[in-house]
Amino acid sequence: MEKMRFDDIDVRILGLLQDNGRMTNVELAERVGLTAPPCLRRVRALELQGAINGYHAALDPGALGYNLTVFAMVSLKSQAESDLRAFEALVATIPEVRECHMLNGEIDFILKIVAPDLQSFQQILTTKLTTAPNVEHVKTSLTIRTSKALPGVPVPEM
Amino acid sequence: MEKMRFDDIDVRILGLLQDNGRMTNVELAERVGLTAPPCLRRVRALELQGAINGYHAALDPGALGYNLTVFAMVSLKSQAESDLRAFEALVATIPEVRECHMLNGEIDFILKIVAPDLQSFQQILTTKLTTAPNVEHVKTSLTIRTSKALPGVPVPEM
DNA sequence: GTTGAAATTTACCCCAT
DNA sequence: ATGGGGTAAATTTCAAC
């Protein structure tokens, strides 16, 4: 993977596709001031470089029955690298865990977990997380409501 | 907005588009066992109903210079609804705050914040968050690494 | 850029209920 | 009559040259 160096047009392409991942290449090209073919070449290059990792529809979680979002703050007994990796490997196998971030400070990991309801969540928590080896403490907080959920990162408007 | 009732085909469409938001409608139609036109009608209906909220390219944050992800746990002095709304309105104006979830328990909000570096983050934190009215306490944790970051929710395979 | 191939979109028809 | 799927044709987009 090569070093990524982007000019202004690349940045605008990234911003536009983050905002609307289904924008047609023709519209994208117009917006950034190119004709379609070079614009598409840039998009493909950005994908190959890994600047664009994929495209995803943003679903309403409730539409698929996931009415509960929970944040779990996990502390481990051992923070040896192999133990950290083992925990990450564990959460990778739990589909309801959508995100796993390793943090500094007393809390080792924060997980974002979705579940249909409180019962399902408690089931996942007690059978898969709190009983896992090396897990010292799990503190969970239910999401009451989400007021902001933007994708990715801010993009400079130009 | 009407009540959402989905059959198996709708669920499969949602799952496939969450996984690949740029899948062509003809491929999508093949995968779910329809021809293109009725498939597209279903997609448009799902968009209108709000089951699909949008499509986004997943960018590598580092590509745009955002090398730091931070979680901020915020406690307010007053949890009156108007004060909660006021805080949500404040964070809505800060582009680096990508997510804002209201939680139960002592922590009122968890924010996901991105920044180019620690200096920029401290600047945002001290000028926009900790000094805001009604903010009692902000505890921040830096992300060391992110081992899992899946979009949306699990989708039943069929 | 240009052009052939492919995808999208609209309109219309059919079938089932 | 209504709703969902299929067929066909026009337009747009894609991708190779």
Automatic annotation (TrEMBL), chains A, B:
Q: At the top level of its lineage, which domain of life is listed? A: Bacteria
Which cellular components does GO assign to this protein? cytosol
The family database entries (Pfam families) matched by this protein are listed as:
AsnC_trans_reg (PF01037), HTH_24 (PF13412)
Keywords for this protein: DNA-binding, Transcription, Transcription regulation
List the GO biological process terms.
Answer: regulation of DNA-templated transcription; response to amino acid
Ranges of residues in domain HTH asnC-type: 6-67
SMART domains named in the record: HTH_ASNC (SM00344)
Q: Which GO terms describe its molecular function?
A: sequence-specific DNA binding
Keyword Zinc-finger listed: no
- Name of this chain's protein: ArsR family transcriptional regulator
